[in-house]
């Protein structure tokens, strides 16, 4: 559908192939692969080889598995052999609709499919995967068909073993409710994310926003439908469904909330023009205008102002504003978390560094010696930011500090690894695997921090805060930003201060460094003026003329092939440039020898020794990264050998590794690169961030090529390169409420009251911020299943996650599951009404209930679990008091950190909620929770803890 910008159609389907419904693994595999497979058990041979629409087939299995299973004849008969039950589920049958955008070829669709499969981590979890891509007679309706084994391969790799039941669904909490996330939803969300990321890499504006509510009707090949009446019925059915789709689309874009969400998915602030663009498909102009007004007048919308009260013409939403302010709040808490105590020696180490400029030493002092928990390093393009981060890693690790490197892209992760970082992750990978990574007290270094989106920052800061880590954020807010809404790096730089590297070192000539500085300052006019003065801007009449001129100049360059690169925005232009440059190299004899031609979906690519290539997918075995450039040193039918620009030699099978010619690149792939000789092809599409990246990649030489058809004049060029990208955070501007607060003069009494109120709010906010797991970031947004069923599954799974032994279910019932944050406090009670009261009051913690107070001591805590026993205030019942204290003492002896909380005398928590309200319950509970949160997990004798924290009678908390 289209909402504001081009949206790629996204549709995923998952079904189980079951034996009880006549399913046969061999038949399904043969059908998908369009080949012949025999079921060795039944002797039936399935032949679908007459169908010719399969353009790609492969089987993926773990490395430790016998490679014979890559043959579907072997794999599917193993599936049949191990599924002994007549009702067995044999395979998961998955269909993913692939984008049919004209800019994409089969190689792109293969890469995208593999990215989705990799992101789902099926192979990493021991499963077998069959992939087939089918292409219709037209360029539309591309589909990837995936068959997934239900069982894991055994560790010895000789066959399939146990069912992978743990991978069938995920149990999470969404909006306070336990829900089951089915595979279909997970696959869709992963497919959407990977597609959007790949579109961005290819320089395409298209984005997938949401799953199609009315999937495209697939007729198949009409010539195979024998009866005219059936054809007519099918056509009528499709026509009717198309009308439904149209109607559904108009209903969707007539929803003001949908319009708002579609815009704020990609930007934090927006204008009225953005809304008008989003509703342009509505045919009735009056209805369009009414919807625009409906969006802008919604109570979700906040108008934004400059500091002087002047309207900025921008808007945001309450949700976006709250997310950004939460990030700043958590960042302030992180800023106070500093544990590194070897500053004196570090200072001496920095002073003794050789081959480091004074500016770079100042940067190292800022990020390593600062007393703040958040340190920001801004480095303009070519100033040596990566060099400083490399030195920082070496200095910190030499002094015993654990350092973890993060970056938003695989390419940036590879750059960190090349600088010596041993533990590195993408931000997404770090967060997904956060429970498996030991990070307590670590120094977290985030490179290319300007490309991290707002949602990712919110979740990253929560995890960092809960693990008492320090943060170094390094980046350049002026370069390419995140695909989704962002702008927080600039705001964090302003809030916490930063050290800025401004001494540009990349460019070799003074005028070139000055030009790079102008582009870094967003002074496009001055930057272009300097380029023109040095005869670096070339205008031609048409795009083809520009390309021809560029290639001619490129051919005269004194630099070697690996020292020069052509940069442009559109992937289509990259392909044209690669093909044209290669033809020239063959014609002038630069490329000689045997030529190997590989065929991809009818499109042929030729390679020779000496060809420049770029890898399009990371490979752990070869230790190559996506977007890594290399030069082929030898080629033959079964093996290519290449030397990467980092100097590493790799040998690979050209039929299994994804790569393409590497003479030209998109700007997105070029970010972070330093190239001696750069040629920029401009075809009208650009903005201030992409132009800055493109114009600052060079070391020695830069040439800019334009065509008058897309860019009529120098003024037009400056305007195109100066286009804003509207990626700022909303909190760079003020709301009406902000302005009113600044204008209001408060009395002394109100100031004191405000301080008390703000102190209490800060406690509440800290609890909420640390516990606010952004499930949407992890792409789990399914609707809740039946509550009783979910509760049962959630209890079993959560208890297994967070205890060393299963809680005996007859004794205990988990009312609220284990929260995702690391400091989790368990509220344990034998008072059902107390638990209910906490839930109604909005207390966010894991809650476990037992119907008998005598059972509390049998709870099995994990080591260091923080437990708050909620009891009634019944001092007259000495047996009850003794039982509560005994339970606390026993839990402490089992390794828990335990405290007791009770309401005022003569009350229980339910009465407290009714008589005094939720705020009174929170005033009592939150300080106790905070006290446990801040208690260090140290080994202490149980008697000492009991004497210190648990009185002979229950403590009264007022």
TrEMBL record:
Domain of life from the UniProt record: Bacteria
Which UniProt keywords are listed? Conjugation
Its protein name is Conjugal transfer protein TraA
Q: State the CDD domains in the record.
A: DEXSc_RecD-like (cd17933), SF1_C_RecD (cd18809)
Q: Which family does it belong to?
A: Belongs to the MobA/MobL family.
Q: Which GO terms describe its molecular function?
A: 5'-3' DNA helicase activity
Q: Which residues form the MobA/MobL protein domain?
A: 28-208
Pfam families, per database record: AAA_30, MobA_MobL
């Amino acid at each position: 559908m289209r909402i504001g910008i081009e949206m790629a159609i996204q549709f995923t389907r998952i079904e189980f192939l079951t034996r009880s419904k006549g399913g046969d693994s061999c038949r399904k595999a043969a059908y998908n692969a369009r080949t012949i497979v025999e079921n060795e058990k039944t002797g039936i041979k399935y032949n679908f080889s007459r169908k010719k629409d399969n353009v790609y087939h492969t089987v993926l299995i773990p490395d430790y598995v016998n490679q014979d299973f890559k043959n579907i004849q072997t794999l599917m008969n193993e599936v049949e052999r191990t599924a002994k039950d007549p009702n067995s589920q044999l395979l998961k049958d998955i269909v993913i609709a692939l984008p049919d955008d004209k800019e994409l070829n089969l190689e792109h669709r293969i890469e995208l499919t593999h990215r989705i499969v990799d992101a789902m981590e099926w192979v990493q979890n021991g499963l077998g995967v069959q992939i087939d891509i089918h292409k219709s007679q037209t360029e539309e309706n591309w589909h990837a068909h995936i068959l997934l084994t239900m069982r894991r391969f055994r560790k010895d790799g000789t066959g399939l073993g146990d069912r992978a039941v743990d991978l069938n669904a995920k149990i999470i909490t969404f909006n306070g409710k336990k829900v089951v996330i089915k595979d279909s939803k997970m696959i869709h969300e992963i497919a959407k994310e990977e597609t959007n990321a790949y579109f961005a890499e290819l320089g395409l504006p298209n984005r997938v926003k949401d799953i199609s509510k009315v999937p495209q009707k697939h007729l198949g090949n009409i010539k195979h439908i024998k009866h005219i009446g059936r054809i007519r019925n099918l056509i009528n059915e499709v026509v009717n469904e198309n009308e439904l789709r149209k109607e559904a689309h108009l209903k969707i874009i007539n929803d003001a909330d949908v319009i708002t969400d579609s815009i704020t998915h990609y930007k934090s602030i927006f204008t009225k023009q953005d809304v008008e663009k989003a509703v342009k498909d509505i045919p009735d102009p009056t209805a369009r205008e009414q919807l625009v007004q409906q969006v802008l007048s919604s109570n979700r919308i906040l108008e934004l102002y400059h500091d002087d009260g002047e309207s900025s013409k921008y808007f945001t939403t309450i949700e976006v504003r709250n997310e950004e302010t939460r990030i700043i709040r958590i960042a302030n808490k992180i800023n106070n978390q500093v544990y590194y105590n070897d500053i004196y020696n570090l200072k001496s180490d920095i002073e003794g560094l050789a081959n480091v400029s004074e500016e770079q030493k100042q940067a190292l002092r800022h990020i390593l010696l600062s007393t703040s928990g958040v340190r920001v390093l801004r480095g303009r393009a070519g100033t040596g930011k990566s060099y400083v981060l490399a030195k920082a890693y070496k200095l910190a690790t030499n002094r015993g500090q654990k350092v973890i490197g993060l970056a938003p892209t695989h390419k940036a992760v590879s750059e960190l690894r090349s600088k010596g970082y041993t533990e590195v992750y993408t931000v997404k990978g770090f967060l997904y695997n956060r429970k498996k990574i030991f990070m307590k007290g670590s120094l977290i270094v985030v490179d290319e921090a300007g490309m991290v989106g707002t949602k990712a920052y919110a979740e990253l800061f929560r995890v960092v805060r809960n693990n008492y880590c320090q943060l170094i954020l390094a980046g350049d807010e002026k370069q390419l930003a995140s695909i989704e809404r962002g702008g927080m790096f600039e705001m964090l730089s302003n809030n916490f201060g930063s050290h800025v590297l401004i001494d540009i070192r990349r460019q070799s000539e003074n005028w070139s460094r000055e030009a790079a500085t102008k582009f870094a300052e967003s002074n496009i006019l001055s930057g272009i003026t300097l380029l023109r003065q040095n005869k670096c801007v070339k205008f031609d009449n048409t795009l083809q003329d520009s390309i021809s001129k560029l290639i001619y100049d490129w051919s005269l360059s004194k630099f070697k092939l690996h020292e020069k690169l052509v940069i442009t925005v559109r992937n289509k232009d990259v392909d044209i440039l690669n093909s044209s440059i290669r033809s020239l190299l063959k014609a002038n004899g630069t490329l000689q020898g045997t030529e190997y031609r590989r065929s991809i979906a009818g499109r042929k690519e030729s390679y020779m020794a000496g060809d420049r290539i770029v890898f399009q997918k990371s490979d752990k075995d070869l230790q190559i990264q996506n977007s890594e450039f290399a030069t082929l040193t030898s080629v033959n039918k079964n093996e290519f050998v290449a030397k990467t620009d980092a100097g590493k030699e790799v040998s690979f099978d050209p039929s299994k590794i994804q790569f393409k010619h590497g003479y030209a690149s998109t700007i997105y792939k070029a970010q972070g690169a330093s190239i001696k000789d750069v040629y920029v092809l401009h075809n009208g599409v650009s903005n201030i961030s992409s132009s800055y990246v493109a114009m600052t990649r060079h070391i020695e030489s830069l040439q800019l090529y334009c065509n008058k058809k897309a860019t009529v004049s120098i003024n037009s060029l400056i305007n195109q390169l100066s286009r804003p990208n509207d990626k700022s955070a909303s909190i760079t501007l003020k709301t009406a409420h902000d302005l009113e607060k600044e204008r209001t003069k408060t009395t002394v009494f109100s100031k004191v009251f405000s301080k008390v109120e703000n102190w209490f709010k800060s406690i509440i906010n800290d609890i909420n911020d640390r516990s606010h797991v952004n499930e949407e970031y992890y792409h789990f947004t399914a609707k809740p299943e039946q509550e009783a069923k979910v509760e049962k599954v959630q209890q079993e799974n959560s208890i297994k996650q967070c205890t060393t032994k299963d809680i005996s279910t007859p004794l205990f019932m988990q009312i609220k599951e284990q929260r995702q944050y690391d400091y989790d406090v368990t509220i344990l009670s034998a008072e059902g009404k107390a638990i209910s009261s906490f839930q109604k009051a909005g207390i966010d913690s894991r809650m476990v209930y037992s119907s008998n107070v005598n059972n509390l001591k049998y709870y099995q805590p994990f080591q260091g679990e923080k437990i708050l026993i909620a009891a009634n205030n019944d001092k007259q019942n000495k047996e009850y008091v003794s039982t509560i204290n005994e339970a606390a003492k026993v839990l402490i002896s089992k390794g828990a950190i335990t405290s007791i909380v009770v309401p005022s005398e003569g009350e229980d928590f339910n009465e407290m909620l009714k008589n005094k309200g939720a705020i009174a319950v929170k005033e009592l509970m939150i300080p106790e929770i905070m006290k446990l949160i801040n208690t260090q997990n140290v080994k202490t004798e149980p008697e000492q803890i009991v004497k210190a924290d648990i009185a002979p009678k229950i403590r009264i908390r007022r």
